[in-house]
Predict the structure.
Amino acid sequence: MQDEYRTVAHAGVHETEVNRSRFLCALAPAATEREAQEFIASVRKEHADATHNCWAYVVGADAGVQKASDDGEPGGTAGVPMLQMLLRRDMRYVVAVVTRYYGGVKLGAGGLIRAYGGAVGEALDALGTRTRRRFRLGTVTVDHQRAGKVENDLRSTGRAVREVRYGEQVTIEIGLPDSEVDAFRAWLADVTAGTARFEPGGEAYGDV
């Protein structure tokens, strides 16, 4: 599994113009292939009058799913350069659709490759990206007397506190890098005089 990956900060559209052709690049996060396909369908519907709606998406922290379409442009001149730009920028869980409104000037294969890849690159720059890092999930169980201090200490040291539940004891769901689990156990034992328990769980990705 990848320790971290980048994805688009939020959905949005960025427009560029090349030799009177308009290129509108719509970007969105996509947690699944189905989400990516639904986003593509919505853009195609919105721009049904466009000359082309080419697309590419990468799903999976390890880029396990990679797909692209030229949507009628010459083979390899649109979808593939878009996909290559996403991969070059280490983007994951993201979908890009570049809508072209033809301006009357043919760009040639090289021009198309630069235009479609460039539209994605410019859109990423304009919309911004965020880094997501793999965390080990875990549960801290502590008595009520110490819970407030433990939670405050967790937050002040930059730990990812995901949820706090109050019952007979207090359980605090956290996320931390795998490499820090042993050091965390020692820290927790120290600040709670050995009274708290830590149970490691599964893995998830969170914002850095």
